[in-house]
Design goal:
alpha+beta, nine-stranded antiparallel beta sheet, eight-stranded antiparallel beta sheet
């Protein structure tokens, strides 16, 4: 018998001895597959033992891996030839019928809020029926049983009233005796028998015995508990009861454990096989008869309430026979594992069996358990060895006791192996390092090594680097990023010969937990010898739990405990975005993002082409590819044609739309090139979609047979500051949210009321917000917000917040708004308009199952984006198609597979159940044979056609910048928005690379205004704006549309900040509500002219009237009082901002002034602002009404109004796009009582010496001779056609020669006469054309005020004065005491004088001037009167007549704007300015 046969015989004998001893032992053929071995082991499991097959393995604190991303240069090698990206089958009945499983993944998670005692609550059960709600900590402490409140007295009445000397132990015993005596006396007294006495005695005895027993038991239990607490701190506990249980349980559990090990051990051995061996296979396996033993346990009772900490000492010594009986010694079987090590290659190979036996292990392990309230009530378990454990084993070839030789006896080998084991386990689980088991995540189905986010490490510079070797010279340092000093994750460039290196590089790492340490190792580069480590700097990742961003970290670089320099770096943590848990317990969908972490998993392959192997057995492995570049290689599965890999790899994806994943399956051949067994490539978006449909199996390309099962898990992460789209996804449309008001909000303030505003949250990020209403529980925002959305699966959170001046804003309640109700698609998959503006009133909830407090009133609608083609995307797709076509051709040449025409497509997959028995041949179909694409084609528009759409989304991409400031933000503001539509990440340096994308809604492109500004960090006020640049959105789009352009922002000191920006524009299918148009908001100028026929309120038959103007219930202007008149002429002017003409409530009330008493009401009227044509001055006569709106003899009021459309910026005081939310506008311009205003050719309401209003007519004659009782009379003066090139100034007057517009006494009841000239109507149309209006407005200029320039005033004549008067005219500004013109004195026999004198003065367009007429004498001048006028800025050239006293002064005025003067010679003076135009 040769040695091999002897080894086989010995192997068989050991297995037989194990089976005779009742221990399962298995013998497998050398070439048995893992499935065959598992079946043999499963048959040894006792019948009736229902066990679930273990499918998942718990990995040991999987370290973070070197990041792989789709950025340029990603991948470990050169680009490989891959087939074109395939499309999965459309029927969804793919091989692995996992659709049901995928659909079942909608299991909801329980909400963990609110909190109980600072911990997430266990659930929402009816805990009041169970005594108390689950909580962490001492129950006595929680319920207040260990402490008594002040003054608490639990004494009985007897104890409190009986003196202590009469109360003691005797009282308890004597009390029941006294009761017995009294009861016996009573029984005797009533004549009862002895039986009743016996019953009373029995009752008393039972009571006494029971009470005493309870007291003793409670005392004994309390004493034992207190003594055990002290004992736990000092003594060790023996667990012999547990050891006895394990001895009896071991025969039952051992087969299960053996079956579990068998299922996985072959795959592990195959992956760990060294290159010089052909394979490692297990042929015999037995676990032994002696179970492990727990020696003792030490408990630490004084830990936190949610922490359980213990030290466990254990041992596994199968050869220790001291505690075994003779019968056990006879049948004892030691654990043995027989491995077959195959040496050689292919058919020239030989298997050598090796026995691993006599394993022994002993150590002490610390176990720390963290508790939680929700199931499974254990959050995690931290374990570590208190010291290096002791272990031993024997490695020897088969041949019995005589021939066996333990190769561990070789000098130094055993010590070397133990050092290697301790070196690998030490950083992982030797104290103080701990190995964490995430129990809650494991039982919840989440892998413990799943990615939780991305860490961005920005390494700036190092200072004072020192080399430990003084003779090594100046180092050439570079930095390596690691976790716990394990595998290298990233590396900086090498800075040659520098002790002060500057890198300024950002590296990205995917993290699976925050319990590790970020280590920056520094090395000195050497070309020949190994690089020398200079030191390491460590940063605890736990700090990221409280603050995800840490800036300018300065840590020492330490080597052997000595400092070797300092390193400055930043860390930023970007967590994985997750759907929030809603009030009903369901979990909302994961937010959409174009950037994120992709976990690519290759599960297994089936039916690989075995004909490519000489012996018919393959040793396959798989390579993962990202955009055709290899990134990861799986372990080799020796001699297995159906390998199971089950290996995953995480990748950072910056552009999900263009990313392609692939797999290359190869056969390991050793010294020759490994042949390719098949390839497959698919777009990431298609792979994710196929997983949702249950498609996981894909046919390999370039092979006769073979399939691969692969999946991908997507976790969105919003990462700013990296190349790519920064997580930006093009919206499908916008949600229009009109927040009207809120009622009965919560009041969280101790003093005063809440300051509410509404914010709109999408995926946990704030997308828009209203203005704040101060000290108001019933705010009326009346504000419209637009929020871009990306999917019907999204949900918006409408949350009402209380703004705080210090600390974080507090929530007053929220509403979840599902978008599925609004977003619908037609048969061509085009999104439909949902313009229904249904009023909604919903309660505000603070949490699950809470009572709503307050209601939010709003409307919601959806407007889709136009399906336009993006030139940049089309160019990118064109390049991708060319690359795919080239790859397909290369794959066809390399693989020899004919692929006519376009890219091939996989055939219909086969069900997984039939996969093992049905061979699959790859069938290719022409892509042209696909079903007709039902999607509507994209609309291609030229830039000119694109910008004709009024409403749309402007998408801006900030590329880089060279700024004059740092520690600030770059923001974009649109139109009348108070808050920015986009804000960049914090800018930390003056030279910054943004690579950030944002969007904003444009309501009216032609009038829209865009503003870029730099805002200082930490301040939101106007003083925080460092630099600003504003202009027309339309002109800016024309310059920056798909064209990176440098814009320059200047600060107050003139320092430039340059930003490179590129813009896109996507039209939105929307008809703008008239209330949101710029023509509905702006500045209203009101000229208060005069009134007539007012009611008399005083005894003298007169009144002292004054007017009060109110806008939306707030007083905005009050005129001066006109004394003793029923026909006052105020001639005052004011301006105010109107948020919405359509919704504004504009009223004027006239009161009678009284000394020392409240003013009496005279009349009122409402003014409809929608009837005012923009930019067109209109004089309107309103019939006044009574206090309750009744008709009657209340008189008439004449006003002149001009409305100038403009954007009105919202303010904190409560402002809106609509009505009722603006702070009360102040008086901008106020005239002098009785002063004439420039209406018509004559000034109105002159002031003369001793003049009386009753001496004048109050109404001129009108064409109709009557005034309607119901409608106001509009008096439009004659106007020249408005120039196309120059807008009419706000408040400008048009002359009407010969007209007297003063209010006169009506000639008859209820009617008045108007002068014919004053009623002349303009021939210009009321409706303004679009082009005209666009030139009349200057979008974005809020309250810009009148133009400045030069006024020229020519004195023409004076007439109507007494004969023989020495007429002298003087002119001065209203607010000045110095005369601007003092004319010559003209003595006229007729009282008329002619002049030709003029002067010019710098002033504003609405500046008022005062004219005096005097009778000039040598010693004393007599004043004949005075009057007011304003210059004519319309350019009409007509005369202006001013009533001064009894006569008139004729003037000819003109006004030249300073802006027009400076741009008069420029052919482009009338064009609007964009951001680049100064």
């Amino acid at each position: 018998m040769d040695t091999r046969q002897a080894a086989k015989a010995e192997e068989h004998r050991m297995a037989k001895d194990a089976r005779n001893a009742g221990v399962p032992a298995f013998e497998f053929p050398a070439n048995a597959t893992p499935e065959q071995k598992a079946a043999m082991a499963k048959r040894a499991i006792p019948a009736g033992l229902d066990l679930e097959k273990a499918k998942a393995t718990v990995k040991a604190s999987t370290p973070q891996e070197a990041i792989v991303s789709d950025l340029d240069g990603a991948g470990s090698g050169a680009t490989v030839a891959m087939p074109a990206a395939q499309k999965p089958a459309q029927n969804g009945t793919n091989g692995a019928t996992n659709g049901a499983a995928a659909a079942a993944n909608g299991a909801t998670e329980k909400e963990k809020s609110p909190y109980v005692n600072g911990y997430p609550k266990a659930g929402d059960g009816e805990w009041e029926r169970t005594g108390w709600e689950p909580r962490i900590g001492s129950l006595n402490d929680a319920l207040g049983l260990n402490t008594l409140p002040d003054g608490a007295d639990h004494q009985t009445w007897v104890e409190s009233n009986l003196d202590d000397k009469f109360f003691g132990e005797w009282w308890h015993n004597a009390g029941i005796i006294a009761f017995a005596c009294l009861s016996t006396w009573f029984i005797t007294k009533v004549g009862l028998g002895l039986a009743w006495v016996t019953i009373v005695g029995a009752i008393c005895a039972t009571y006494y015995r029971t009470s005493i027993r309870r007291v003793r038991r409670n005392v004994r239990d309390d004493l034992n508990r207190e003594l055990m607490k002290t004992k736990l701190d000092t003594d060790l506990e023996s667990l012999e009861w547990l050891n006895s249980f394990v001895v009896k349980f071991w025969p039952i559990y051992q087969p299960v454990l053996a079956a579990t090990v068998i299922n996985m051990v072959d795959g592990i051995l195959a992956g760990a096989t060294p290159g010089f061996l052909d394979s490692l296979r297990m042929t015999t396996f037995t676990l032994g008869t002696k179970p492990p033993r727990i020696d003792h346990v030490k408990t630490y009772p004084k830990t936190e309430d949610d922490i359980v900490e213990m030290d466990w000492a254990f041992s596994f010594t199968p050869n220790d026979t001291d505690d075994l009986t003779s019968r056990q010694l006879k049948k004892k079987v030691n654990p043995k594992v027989v491995l077959e090590v195959r040496v050689g290659k292919g058919i020239i190979s030989q298997g050598i069996p090796i026995v691993v036996e006599d394993m022994a292990f002993a150590g002490t392990m610390k176990v720390k358990i963290k508790l939680q309230l929700p199931f499974p009530h254990i959050e995690k378990v931290d374990i570590c060895f208190m010291g290096p454990p002791k272990f031993d084993y024997a490695l020897k070839p088969l041949g019995g006791e005589t021939l066996g030789f333990d190769i561990g006896f070789l000098p130094g080998l055993s010590t070397f192996i133990q050092e290697q084991v301790h070196g690998n386990l030490g950083p992982m689980m030797y104290s103080p390092n701990v190995f964490t088991l995430e129990i809650a995540k494991m039982l919840g189905g989440a892998p413990i090594d799943t990615a939780i986010g991305v860490l961005a490490v920005t390494i700036h510079r190092a200072n004072g680097l020192k080399n430990s070797d003084k003779f090594s010279g100046t180092p050439d340092p570079y930095a390596v990023v690691t976790i716990n000093q394990r595998a290298e994750l990233a590396r900086t460039k090498t800075v040659h010969e520098s002790t002060e290196p500057k890198w300024n590089e950002t590296k990205y790492i995917i993290l699976s937990n925050l319990n590790d340490s970020l280590d920056l190792q520094f090395f000195d580069y050497n070309e020949i010898r190994k690089d020398k480590e200079l030191g390491v700097a460590s940063f605890a990742l736990e700090q990221l739990k409280t603050d995800p961003e840490h800036e300018n970290i300065n840590l020492p670089i330490v080597s052997n405990g000595k400092p070797r320099g300092n390193i400055m770096f930043d860390v930023r943590f970007f967590p994985v975005l997750e759907g929030r848990i809603l009030d009903d317990g369901t979990k909302e969908p994961v937010p959409e993002s174009n950037t994120g972490i992709a976990r690519f998993t290759i599960h297994q392959c089936k039916d690989l082409d075995a004909s490519k192997s000489v012996i018919g057995q393959l040793s396959p492995y798989a390579q993962m590819t990202l955009n055709s570049k290899p990134i990861f290689t799986t372990k080799i599965k020796k001699r297995n044609n159906d390998p199971q890999f089950e290996e995953s790899h995480d990748m950072l994806i910056t552009n999900r739309r263009t990313c392609k994943l692939g797999v290359i399956v190869k056969d390991e051949r050793g010294f020759v090139d490994d042949p390719v067994l098949g390839k497959y490539q698919i777009k990431l978006t298609d792979l994710l979609e196929s997983k949702e449909k249950g498609t996981e199996w894909f046919n390999l390309v370039g092979s006769k047979s073979g399939r691969v099962k692969m999946t991908c898990q997507w976790k969105p992460v919003t990462i700013k500051g990296i190349a790519g789209t920064g997580g930006y996804i093009t919206p499908i449309g916008v949600m229009r949210l009109h927040f009207q008001s809120a009622k009965d909000l919560r009041n969280l303030e101790a003093l005063g009321k809440s300051d509410p505003y509404v914010r709109v949250m999408l995926a946990g990020a704030e997308k828009a917000r209203t203005v704040t209403f101060e000290n108001d529980l019933n705010p009326a925002w009346d504000e419209v917000l637009y929020v871009p959305v990306h999917s019907a699966k999204e949900k918006l959170t409408l949350e009402v917040m209380d703004q705080e001046s210090m600390g974080k804003d507090k929530s007053l309640g929220a509403i979840e708004l599902s978008l599925e109700e609004f977003i619908k698609q037609d048969s061509q998959e085009l999104y439909q308009v949902h313009a229904e503006k249904r009023n909604r009133s919903e309660g505000l909830y603070l949490g699950k199952k809470t009572t709503p407090k307050g209601t939010l009133n709003f409307t919601a609608s959806f407007f889709p984006c136009l399906n336009v083609a993006d030139p940049e995307e089309e160019e990118e797709e064109k390049k991708l198609l060319e690359i795919e076509k080239q790859e397909a051709e290369e794959a066809k040449k390399a693989l020899g597979v004919p692929a006519p025409g376009s890219s091939p497509k996989i055939a219909e997959p086969v069900a997984e159940a039939d996969m093992a028995k049905t061979p699959v041949n790859v069938a290719f179909t022409d892509a042209d044979g696909d079903e007709t694409d039902k999607k509507a084609p994209k609309i291609r528009l030229s830039p000119e056609e694109l910008l004709r759409h009024d409403s749309g989304l402007i998408i801006f991409k900030f590329i880089d910048g060279a700024l004059a400031h740092k520690d600030c933000y770059l923001e974009v503001l649109m139109d009348d928005m108070h808050f920015p539509s986009f804000s960049s990440t914090r800018i930390r340096s003056k030279n910054v690379k943004f690579d950030e994308i944002g969007d904003a809604m444009v309501r009216e492109l032609e009038f829209s205004k865009i503003t870029l500004r730099l805002r200082e960090h930490g301040d939101d006020g106007e003083d925080a704006v460092l630099a600003k640049l504003g202009g027309s959105t339309l002109e800016t789009l024309k310059m920056c549309l798909n064209n990176p352009t440098v814009l320059t922002l200047k600060d107050k000191d003139g320092q430039p900040s340059k930003v490179k920006i590129s813009l896109k524009y996507i039209p939105v299918v929307m008809k703008l509500d008239p209330s949101e148009s710029i023509s509905n908001m702006g500045t209203l100028r009101v000229d208060i002219l005069d009134a007539a026929n007012l009611p008399a309120a005083d005894r003298n038959g007169k009144s002292d009237p004054f007017c009060v103007f109110e806008l939306d219930g707030k007083e905005i202007h009050k005129t001066k009082v006109q004394k003793k008149t029923l026909h006052p002429a105020w001639n005052e002017v004011f301006e105010t901002q109107v948020a919405s003409r359509a919704a504004a409530k504009f009223e004027v009330e006239i009161f009678d002034w009284d000394i020392g008493t409240k003013a009496d009401f005279l009349a009122k009227t409402s003014i409809d602002l929608t009837a005012i044509e923009p930019f067109k001055p209109q004089t309107v006569v309103y019939k006044l009404k009574g206090k309750k709106g009744e008709e009657g003899k209340f008189g008439e009021l004449r006003l002149r109004m001009v409305f100038k459309p403009d954007y009105v910026t919202r303010t904190r005081q409560g402002s809106s796009t609509f009505h009722g939310t603006f702070a009360a506008p102040g008086k901008l311009v106020t005239g002098v009582a009785g002063a004439p205003l420039k209406v018509g050719g004559a000034a109105v309401g002159g002031i003369s010496k001793g003049a009386s209003f009753l001496k004048k007519n109050t109404f001129g004659r009108a064409k109709s001779n009557t005034v309607s009782e119901d409608e106001p009379v509009v008096i439009e003066p004659e106007m020249q056609a408005i120039s196309e090139n120059r807008p009419m100034s706000s408040g400008s007057a048009i002359r009407m020669d010969g007209a007297d517009d003063r209010l006169l006494t009506p000639t008859g009841r209820g009617s008045s006469s108007l002068s014919p000239n004053s009623a002349a109507r303009s021939t210009s149309p009321h409706a303004r054309s679009r082009s005209t209006s666009s030139q009349h407005s200057v979008p974005g200029v809020i309250g810009s005020g009148p133009d400045s320039g030069t006024a020229t005033i020519r004195l023409v004549a004076a007439s109507g004065y007494p004969a023989g008067t020495n007429v002298q005219v003087r002119i001065r500004a209203v607010d000045k005491n110095k005369d601007l013109l003092k004319s010559k004195t003209v003595k006229s026999s007729t009282g008329d004088a002619s002049y030709d004198e003029q002067f010019s003065v710098q002033c504003f367009a609405d500046t008022q001037f005062k004219v005096f007429v005097k009778d000039n004498h040598l010693f004393k001048d007599e004043e004949l009167g005075e009057g007011l006028f304003a210059v004519d800025d319309t350019g009409s050239g007509n005369d202006t007549i001013v009533n001064v006293g009894e006569g008139r002064v004729t003037l000819r005025t003109s006004f030249k704007s300073a802006e027009n003067a400076s741009t008069a010679d420029s052919p482009k003076a009338s064009r609007r300015k964009g951001l680049l135009k100064k």
